[in-house]
Design goal:
The structure is a homotetramer. Chain A is an alpha+beta fold. Chain A has three helices and six strands. Chains A and B meet through helix 2, helix 3 and strand 3 of A and helix 2, helix 3 and strand 3 of B. Strand 3 of chain A pairs antiparallel with strand 3 of chain B, so a sheet runs across the interface.
């Protein structure tokens, strides 16, 4: 996919740095390509639900930010991105050392962009195991001057 | 709705207390009735996304826990609850002093329970304003001995 | 809710009459109020899936049209409505003599409108039983001249 | 993916033949592999909504059946499949000569199976264009004797 904004990568990184929640949970931006974003999150016990698995809301937090920035990376300069809706299927208990949310744009539109994100666990060097998948819609709004 | 587990309220409270993420974000269980749960979350700047609104993932976190415990409140003793899937529509920017996620069971089944949660902002004593709504599925699993 | 288009009821009815699929399956518009639409569908064996229940896609067809027209009823004159996305939870086998999809607007926006629809079975004069619920997003597009 | 039921292909075909709605709309089973199903539907004017596009409910009908049979193809003998929930994003107006719904299982479980379906238009020999995508959950129930 061809980005409309030549400085998309810097703007994604700058916006991500302005999401305080990412700092609170310890998430990092690990891949920025046109229409594709990865966010990495090491497991922490204080992010868990009652069984010790990563809470589905935290899984959603990194998937949603990944989707938002995947959409944003294809928007023209001077845009802002907001989440319209998303749906998450939780496939396995979210247990592992590290989690990666990888989002890819399915259809970029002038107003609405549809994005999918998969959230994987990664233990050591082993294969990724899918724990959740998101399908969502992002909206492009013009930045207020 | 009639609870199958007479000590459902104590068990919901005990399980909620074992969700470390609720403590991290400052969420509290504020209503426990059969099939109905409310979770309250005061706004904090470190829970925000890049525009200062509560991150959609945090909105989802309290909505998902509310849905899970609403389902759990109707399950027989010896059950555990897990989220199967949910869908969230974000209706307005999540700005306000306090947020309440209110979940109500739509259909309780032996295996699957369908739940809806609305997330409101509450400023002072004024009316609730809806910021997001979730429709999701929870599954009942038998507790491992 | 206050309609922006004084002739919304006539326009909903006219548009519904232009949906050939409604005629094919035998669905009728049974209630038109601002932000609220009901569509009624008598059971027919040729609308069923392999167990004789109404196919989930047919349940969705009437729910989606009800949601679309509920959104459309609140749009300004000269608008068209399209479905952006919807999510359906199927709560019970869709068996019964008659089905009613009732849609209500949750949040009407200038571009996007969020709508919920419940699909009930109605047997004789007895109570409605909920078989499915939809949560979806509709978009307002200006009619091309 | 490895099928548990050696006669899965015959059973999918037999069950599909028992869905009267598929005959009503003119849909055909065009691919049956373990965990992968395609259903083909030629455009017909009586399946349209008010702008002449295939109604979103019809798009959903073939996507849902494709998802159901993709899940069913991996279930043990003596199972039945029902749809629990699905979410559909509509990406483009559904216009074209032929539509294909292609479903693939993402995660097959003993009780629940998560499936994705893409619906494409195919005009002549040209490339497929994606018009909608579904993410849903199917449930395995034991056949009643």
């Amino acid at each position: 996919m061809t980005p409309l904004n030549p400085s998309f990568a810097a703007e994604v990184a700058a916006s991500f740095a302005q999401q305080p929640i990412m700092n609170l949970i310890g998430a990092q931006l690990s891949l920025v390509e046109p229409g594709v974003i990865e966010i990495t999150l090491p497991y922490r016990a204080d992010l868990a639900q009652q069984h010790g698995y990563l809470h589905a809301g935290v899984v959603t937090t990194i998937a949603d930010s990944a989707c938002g920035y995947a959409a944003y990376s294809l928007m023209p300069a001077g845009s802002e991105v907001l989440s319209v809706e998303f749906k998450v299927n939780l496939l396995r208990p979210a247990q592992g050392e590290n989690f990666i949310a990888r989002a890819e744009v399915i259809k970029a539109g002038r107003t609405l962009t549809v994005v999918r994100a998969d959230v994987f666990t990664v233990a050591g060097d082993s294969d990724r195991e899918l724990v959740a998948t998101m399908q969502g819609t992002m909206i492009c709004v013009r930045k207020r001057e």
